[in-house]
C-alpha cells in the first residue's frame, strides 16, 4: 500500500487573519508542493482555529492519492500527536479513478491511481484553550479489511482551539501574530501548552495569573510618569473603550512608549477574552489613594507614580510633600469571586478580593493633605471595558472624565461657542512629517506608521526615531468628517483622561488652534496637542533636540492653507457600495460589494450580534447571519491621503 497526501482543508474552523488579511476559511491549509519546509518537515501554509464549543462540526478534509490504484479496502486516516493521541480521524470515500501518463512520478505499472477524500472528525476534546504549534504530527493510514498500517510523512501544523464567542471582539478574525506571540510567551509564565501526556489546558485562575504576570513583565511600554495618561485606548462611552491593539503590539519594541492603567486593564480584558475567560469586568475607582511601595509597570519599585517633574523620584519617604497619589485607577475584577487583576501595579494576579486588594495597594501613611481621602470598595465601578479593537468612533457627546472640568476651566473651553463657529474643514493630503522643514535635517528615520479607521474619525500615526540617540517623536493627526464638535470632545478627552493627582496639561501656544494644550511637567516626555475645526494634532516628544514648536506651526500652516467651507465633494464616494440581502435568515450570507478607488481603504462596524464576517476578497465582504434580530452594518470608506471618511449604513433584519 502506498499513499500520498495532496491537500488538507480545515472544516468548521474559526476566522483568523494573517498580515492583516483574512485567511479564507475554505482555502486549503496545506497542499502538496506548495508547502513550507521547516527542518526538513513539510509545514502547513496557514494556521487553523477550531471551536471548543462546537467540535462536532470541526475537522479536516484530507485528499489522499493512491499511486498504486487501490480501490478496495475500508481505510481510516488519523492525525496523531506524540504518535499516540489522536487529534483527528475519519473514513475515506473513494473518488474516481483516472489514468496518468507513465512519466508521472509515483504511478503504478498499470498507470492507474485513485484519489480518496477523508473526512476527519475531531477526536481530542480539550476543556479550554490550547494550541499545537511547531510540532511534528504523524499520520497513520489503516486498511481496516487487511489490518495493514502505513505511516505517512509527518507534517507541522499550527492549530488553535478557541471558544466561538471569544472572537467577537475581532471583527476581521483573530490576528495570527497575536496568537503566536502570547501563547509562546505564556509558556514562560507557567502556562505550558503541552507535556508528555499531550496537549493540556488549565484552570481559569491559572490562566488569569499567567496573563497578568506576563503583561506586567512585558515592557516597554512603561508607565507614563509625566501625565498618567492612556496611550492605546479611546473612550467610546461610560467605562467603554476602543483598544488600539496593533499600536500596543508595536510598542513592545519601542523603549519610549508609555501606557497607563486604563490601557493595561483593557489589554488584560482582551487577552483573557480570547482565552475564553469573559467574566472579567473593567473596574474604575475614583478616588484611589497613595500607592504603597510596589512594582510599577516598567519603572521598578515605586510609591510615587507621577514623578517626571524634577521634584521627586519613583520612591520617596512616605510623608514627603512631593509624593503624589493616584487620583483614580483602573484594573479588572472577576465576575464570579470579585478577585482583582492589575497588570499596572503589583502585579495583582487574582488572589485578592476587593477589600484585600485595597488594603495591600493603598498606603494610609502619607503627607497630610487637607480634604484628601482614600477610596473604598464603594468607589469601585464596573463596566464593559474594551468593546472595539483597532477601530474608533467619533464621540457624539462629552464623556465626563477625572479632569474634564479642570481641563476645560484651565483652557477656558466653551463647547457652545465652538459649536457656533462657522463650519470649515481641513482638506489636505497629509505627507510623511519629513516634509516639515523643521524635521527634514534632523537625522530622523520613520520607525512606525499606522492608520486607525473609524466612524467619523480617522487617526494617522507616525513615529520618528533620532538616529544618534534612538529617541522618538510621535505625531498623531485626527481628522473628523462629521460634526466639528466631535473634534472638540476628543480634544477634551485627551486632556482629561489620566490617573495623576492633578491636571497635567496647561495652556499651549494660543496661535496653534482654537484650543491648545501642553504638558505641565518639565521632564523630557513632553506632549503638545491642539484642535482646529475638524482636526487634532497630538505630538509626544521624547527627544529634547526636536523643534516641536516649529513642527506644530507647520501643521497649523498647512491646515489653515487648506480650509474649505464644504467637504461633500471630498468625501469618499459610497454610491457603489451595495448589499445583496437585507433580510437574511440565520445561516444565510450577506454580500457587500464595493467599487472603490485605489486610494480608498475600507472597514466595517457592526451594531448587533446577528452578523459575522465570513470571507473577504478584493471589493467584496461576505457576512453570515448567525442570530435573529436587528443589525446595523456600517461600511467605512477612508481616503488614505486626506483621512476623510464616509459611512454607508445598511439596516438588516436577521430572520
Oligomer: single chain
Low-confidence stretches: 96-110
Q: CA-to-CA gap between the ends? A: 51 Å
* Biggest β-sheet description: 11 strands, mixed
- Please estimate the helix content: 10-25%
Task: Summarize the SSE layout with pairings.
Elements: E1 4-11, E2 16-18, E3 21-22, E4 28-31, E5 36-38, E6 41-43, E7 48-51, E8 59-66, E9 75-81, E10 85-99, E11 112-122, E12 130-143, E13 149-162, E14 174-175, H1 176-186, E15 194-195, E16 198-199, H2 204-217, E17 222-223, E18 233-237, E19 240-243, H3 245-251, E20 258-259, H4 261-274, E21 280-285, E22 294-296, E23 300-302, E24 329-334, E25 339-342, E26 345-346, E27 348-353, H5 354-361, E28 380-383, E29 385-389, E30 392-393, H6 404-411, H7 415-419, E31 425-426, H8 437-440, E32 444-452, E33 454-455, E34 457-466, E35 472-480, H9 484-496, E36 505-507, E37 515-519, E38 526-532, E39 535-541, H10 548-561, E40 563-564, E41 577-579, E42 589-594, E43 600-607, E44 611-617, E45 620-625, E46 629-639, E47 645-654
Parallel strand pairs: 2-14, 6-13, 7-13, 17-20, 19-29, 30-33
Antiparallel strand pairs: 1-4, 1-8, 2-3, 5-6, 8-11, 9-10, 9-12, 10-11, 12-13, 15-16, 18-19, 21-24, 21-28, 22-23, 22-26, 24-25, 25-27, 31-40, 32-34, 34-35, 35-39, 36-37, 37-38, 38-39, 41-42, 42-45, 43-46, 44-45, 46-47
Helix pairs in contact: 2-4, 6-9
Amino acid at each position: 500500500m502506498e499513499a500520498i497526501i495532496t491537500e488538507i482543508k480545515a472544516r468548521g474552523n474559526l476566522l483568523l487573519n494573517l498580515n492583516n488579511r483574512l485567511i479564507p476559511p475554505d482555502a486549503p491549509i496545506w497542499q502538496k508542493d506548495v508547502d513550507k519546509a521547516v527542518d526538513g518537515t513539510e509545514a502547513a501554509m496557514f494556521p487553523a482555529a477550531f471551536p471548543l464549543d462546537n467540535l462536532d462540526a470541526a475537522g479536516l478534509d484530507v485528499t489522499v492519492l493512491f499511486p498504486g490504484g487501490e480501490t478496495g479496502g475500508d481505510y481510516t486516516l488519523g492525525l496523531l500527536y506524540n504518535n499516540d493521541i489522536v487529534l483527528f480521524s475519519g473514513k475515506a470515500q473513494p473518488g474516481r479513478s483516472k489514468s496518468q501518463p507513465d512519466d508521472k512520478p509515483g504511478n503504478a505499472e498499470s498507470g492507474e491511481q485513485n484519489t480518496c477524500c477523508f473526512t476527519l472528525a475531531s477526536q481530542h476534546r480539550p476543556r479550554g484553550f490550547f494550541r499545537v504549534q511547531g510540532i511534528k504530527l504523524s499520520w497513520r493510514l489503516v486498511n481496516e479489511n487487511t489490518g495493514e498500517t502505513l505511516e505517512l510523512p509527518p507534517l507541522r501544523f499550527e492549530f488553535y482551539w478557541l471558544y466561538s464567542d471569544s472572537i467577537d471582539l475581532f471583527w476581521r478574525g483573530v490576528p495570527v501574530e497575536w496568537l503566536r506571540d502570547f501563547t509562546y510567551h505564556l509558556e514562560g509564565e507557567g502556562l505550558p501548552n503541552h507535556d508528555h501526556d499531550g496537549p493540556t489546558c488549565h484552570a481559569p485562575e491559572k490562566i488569569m495569573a499567567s496573563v497578568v504576570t506576563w503583561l506586567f513583565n512585558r515592557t516597554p511600554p512603561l508607565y507614563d510618569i509625566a501625565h498618567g495618561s492612556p496611550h492605546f485606548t479611546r473612550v467610546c462611552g461610560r467605562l467603554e473603550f476602543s483598544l488600539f491593539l496593533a499600536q500596543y503590539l508595536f510598542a513592545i519594541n519601542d523603549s519610549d512608549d508609555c501606557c497607563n492603567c486604563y490601557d493595561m486593564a483593557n489589554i488584560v480584558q482582551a487577552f483573557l477574552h480570547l482565552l475564553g475567560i469573559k467574566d472579567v469586568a473593567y473596574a474604575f475607582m475614583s478616588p484611589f489613594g497613595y500607592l504603597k511601595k510596589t512594582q510599577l509597570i516598567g519603572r521598578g519599585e515605586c510609591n510615587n507614580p507621577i514623578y517626571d517633574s524634577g521634584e521627586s523620584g519613583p520612591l520617596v519617604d512616605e510623608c514627603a510633600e512631593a509624593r503624589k497619589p493616584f487620583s483614580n485607577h483602573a484594573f479588572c475584577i472577576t465576575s464570579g469571586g470579585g478577585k482583582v487583576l492589575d497588570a499596572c501595579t503589583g502585579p495583582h494576579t487574582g488572589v485578592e478580593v476587593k477589600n484585600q486588594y485595597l488594603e495591600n495597594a493603598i498606603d494610609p501613611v502619607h503627607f497630610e493633605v487637607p480634604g484628601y481621602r482614600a477610596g473604598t470598595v464603594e468607589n469601585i465601578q464596573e463596566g464593559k471595558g474594551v468593546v472595539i479593537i483597532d477601530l474608533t468612533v467619533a464621540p457624539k457627546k462629552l464623556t465626563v472624565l477625572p479632569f474634564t472640568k479642570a481641563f476645560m476651566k484651565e483652557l477656558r473651553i466653551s463647547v457652545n461657542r465652538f459649536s457656533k463657529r462657522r463650519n470649515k474643514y481641513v482638506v489636505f493630503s497629509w505627507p510623511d512629517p519629513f516634509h516639515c522643514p523643521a524635521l527634514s535635517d534632523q537625522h530622523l528615520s520613520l520607525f512606525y506608521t499606522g492608520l486607525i479607521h473609524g466612524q467619523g474619525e480617522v487617526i494617522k500615526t507616525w513615529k520618528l526615531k533620532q538616529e544618534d540617540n534612538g529617541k522618538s517623536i510621535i505625531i498623531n493627526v485626527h481628522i473628523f468628517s462629521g460634526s466639528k464638535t466631535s473634534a472638540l470632545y476628543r480634544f477634551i478627552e485627551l486632556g482629561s483622561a489620566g490617573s495623576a493627582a492633578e491636571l497635567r496639561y496647561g495652556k499651549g501656544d494660543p496661535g496653534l488652534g482654537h484650543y491648545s494644550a501642553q504638558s505641565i511637567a518639565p521632564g523630557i516626555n513632553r506632549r503638545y496637542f491642539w484642535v482646529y475645526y475638524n482636526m487634532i494634532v497630538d505630538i509626544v516628544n521624547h527627544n529634547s533636540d526636536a523643534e516641536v514648536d516649529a513642527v506644530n506651526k507647520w501643521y497649523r500652516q498647512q491646515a489653515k492653507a487648506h480650509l474649505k467651507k464644504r467637504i461633500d465633494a471630498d468625501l469618499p464616494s459610497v454610491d457603489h457600495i451595495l448589499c445583496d440581502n437585507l433580510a437574511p435568515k440565520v445561516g444565510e450570507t450577506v454580500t457587500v460589494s464595493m467599487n472603490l478607488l485605489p486610494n480608498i481603504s475600507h472597514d466595517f462596524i457592526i451594531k448587533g450580534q446577528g452578523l459575522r464576517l465570513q470571507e473577504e476578497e478584493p471589493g467584496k465582504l461576505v457576512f453570515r447571519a448567525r442570530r435573529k434580530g436587528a443589525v446595523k452594518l456600517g461600511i467605512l470608506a477612508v481616503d488614505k491621503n486626506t483621512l476623510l471618511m464616509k459611512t454607508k449604513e445598511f439596516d438588516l433584519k436577521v430572520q
